[in-house]
Design a protein that fits this description.
The protein has about 280 residues and is an alpha/beta fold. The chain has 12 helices and 12 strands. The chain is globular, with a radius of gyration of 18 Å. The protein starts with a strand and ends with a helix.
């Protein structure tokens, strides 16, 4: 059976507002006030998002963030630190009764990865859905101890030419499922490693070399710049074909905006949230 999704593009926003909107939409979708939703968005300046379980002061060099004028926020999802800059960011939100939410975390990752795989296909790139349930693949993509997200795939991730090109994280909360992730259009690895903390300069260089061997961007593969709009169109079609689902354009509701602004003020802009670990 084909699923139905509202598709919205919320454009550029601050790191805190982007995370507030994801959670607000999750809450409204879960309560039946909004339909299952695919959201595309970007960041109004380079931003670091930290995984829920990471320790901010242990992982992030905040002097470097301030010097570069980067933004910073903690996600409600797990995983590692991500530098959001030249990318298409997506989120998928469904209520608990949806087939995706009834699946295990691993299986829902796999299903959504098929939609993302089709999106890369629309851009002329052959992405593979990698399963780390296989011991051989798990060893091949064994993670280092970098705080960065893109150094290894999760249980099901998108890999092109043996390198990770998309990073996703998922949470089950508020009576629904939220998965969001970064689809790398381009990547400045120096910027990422400049704002992470390492035991030593030698350790940093070793992990940087390891990262270069594990992660890649659309620009590197396509040998051209791919715009946000082109990527959004590709992944809209990809989700339709890969999930499969029907999509219809929509917009953020007044209730969602109101809730997002509340979450922005009370949670995502607060040190009590961002530095809670």
């Amino acid at each position: 059976m084909s699923w139905s999704f509202r598709v919205i593009d919320t454009g550029s926003a601050s790191a805190a507002m982007n995370m507030a909107l994801d959670e607000a939409i999750l809450m409204e979708v879960s309560q039946g006030h909004s339909p299952s939703t695919i959201r595309f968005y970007r960041w109004d300046r380079p931003s670091i998002s930290l995984g829920y379980f990471q320790r901010a002061t242990k992982e992030i060099d905040f002097e470097a963030i301030q010097k570069k004028d980067f933004d910073f926020v903690r996600r409600m999802t797990g995983g590692r630190a991500v530098l959001h800059d030249r990318e298409l960011t997506y989120s998928v939100t469904v209520p608990d009764e949806h087939e995706l939410a009834k699946s295990s975390i691993v299986e829902s990752y796999r299903k959504l990865s098929l939609g993302l795989q089709e999106g890369f296909s629309q851009l002329g790139l052959h992405a593979e859905v990698v399963s780390l349930e296989d011991e051989g693949m798990r060893e091949k993509f064994k993670s280092g101890d970098s705080a960065a997200c893109f150094d290894s795939p999760s249980w099901y991730e998108l890999v092109v030419e043996g390198k990770k090109i998309a990073g996703s994280a998922q949470v089950r909360s508020h009576g629904g499922l939220l998965q969001h992730g970064s689809l790398l259009l381009d990547l400045d690895v120096d910027d990422l490693f400049d704002v992470l903390l390492f035991r030593s300069e030698k350790h940093k260089q070793l992990l940087r070399q390891d990262f270069d061997e594990r992660a890649i961007s659309v620009k590197q593969l396509a040998h051209r710049d791919v715009s946000y709009e082109e990527a959004k169109q590709a992944f809209s079609v990809g989700m339709q074909n890969g999930l499969p689902c029907s999509i219809h354009p929509g917009s953020v509701t007044e209730r969602e905006w109101t809730l997002a602004h509340e979450l922005l003020q009370t949670k995502y802009s607060q040190d009590s949230w961002n530095f809670r670990r």
